[in-house]
Amino acid sequence: MRGMTSLTLAMLAILTPPLRAQQPPAADRAWNDLARADVAAALQLIETNHPGASAELGDTDFLRRLQSARALADQRLPLVRDYGGHAAVLNGLANAFGDGHIRSDPILSLSRRTWTGIVMARRAGRWVVGSQAATDGEPDLKSAQLVACEGIEAEQFARQRIGTFLANPDVEADMARRAASLLLDDGNPFVKRPARCTFDRPGGGQVNFVLNWRPVPLRTLEQVAGEAYRPARAGMGVSAFAGGQWIGLETLSNDAAKVVEEARRQQAILRAAPMVVVDLRGNSGGNSQYADEIARVLVGEARVAAVNRGGNDCDGTYWRVSPDNSRALRKFAGELPADRAGDWIRQADALEAAVANKAIFSPALPACARRDKQGAPIVPSRMPATAMSGRLVLLTDRACFSSCLMATSLFRRLGALHVGEATDMGTRYMEVREITLPSGLRTFATLQKVALGVGDFGPYAPAVTFPGPLDEDDRLKAWVAALPR
After folding, report:
1. What's phi and psi for 379, nearest 5 deg?
2. CA Rg, the chain, in Å?
């Protein structure tokens, strides 16, 4: 490890792409060594800690993805000679699992990138120019729709560039969040940057645009990208609006506890309101228990219990036993508020005992685990009546991920009208844990727990899609208030 750390420090002098062609063979080999060590550590992390990697669970799809991820990394590693290749091989490794929780993030990043002056965005299922910093003589392409690059139709072009290394190509929300990278060059040696693209302008007319690739400071790129994508924010709290009551739940971190308490104090007002909106815009997860508690405040304990029971006879959550997972769970339990730590402490105690006993899962998997069909929870045909007198509305955007997906599933099963924008997706695997890779340049994340009887979460498409940008709060609230009954 010390040798790899020394190599990392030596690499810092050659991180920028302009020096790539000047690198001596020794630098190429050093980068390749870093990549090989990081890939080996990432695969070991998954194999020894992820529930799906255990043969006892019998998840053949996950085991196939693991084998494919290893094979792809082996194919790509010989071409890694610099920072861009190092990043690409780890991004591709993580992306091969098709689960956004399994990811590799940079600890160090370049101060400059290479771009075309164009930052792409994904809007209403189309690839459009979200913002542009044109040089003299370049046409104004703002809001123009991408038709093709190098003769490759826009959707296929995006799948090749973004869907191979950065996002699940079959999940709209995931691809949309990565849209800005479509016409950026991050030094990935496994994709060829295009020289020419075709755009349809909003007012009519097609433009065959020769891309002028040039360096850009990261700060400038971030400013231009900010014009293309303004993230929506739900905020945190309970407030009135024209249609009734609005619950902003931007995160399911421990900050959500205050929203739960505020909802409890206003329970009578919420249950009597003509409409209650649970706003999950910008919510990328946390602890789904907070969403469960808000649901109980709104519709009542009996109704929530009925949908949570579902109809699957093989359910429950099970930790993959490993010393590292055990230490991580103990640390997490120790950081929770005292009134919420009890169950997590008990799980940590059980996991530590399982490590000592050399068990594979904690608690032990039931016999039905290998036959779990991973189907979605079954909504009972008859449920207790809701405690609300008004309408329950759920609002999501493309940021909804992880525990936000569990919250979305719950409120949809409770009968909420789902509006806004389609969510991301997640698997039945839970509890993210991240390590720093041996190079010190990047992290890699795994999951530690499996939930039987729930299946994958999402992507969830709304029953009614909001027609504009979801960051426009006043317009959005007026639109929700006017939704037809």
Report:
1. -85, 125
2. 24
Contact of 443 with 47, CB cutoff 8 Å = no
Bridge pairing between strands 275-279 and 206-210: unpaired
Helix, coil or strand: residue 7: helix
Name the residue ranges covered by the structural domains of the chain: 2-95, 112-228, 236-432+448-481
335 SS3 class: helix
Q: Kindly report the pTM of this predicted structure.
A: 0.84
Query: Domain 236-432+448-481: which topology?
Result: 2-enoyl-CoA Hydratase; Chain A, domain 1 (3.90.226)
The whole-angstrom separation of Cα 186 and Cα 210 is: 19
The CATH H-level superfamily of 112-228 is PDZ domain (2.30.42.10)
d(CA 228, CA 243): 30
- Pick from 312, 308, 272, 282: which is nearest to 293 by CA? 308
Among 156, 182, 181, CA closest to 169: 156
Residue 24, helix vs strand vs coil: coil
- Kindly report, residue by residue over 87-141, the tens digit of the pLDDT: 999 999 999 999 999 999 999 877 888 999 999 999 888 999 999 999 988 999 9
19's CB contacts (< 8 A; 6+ apart) are none
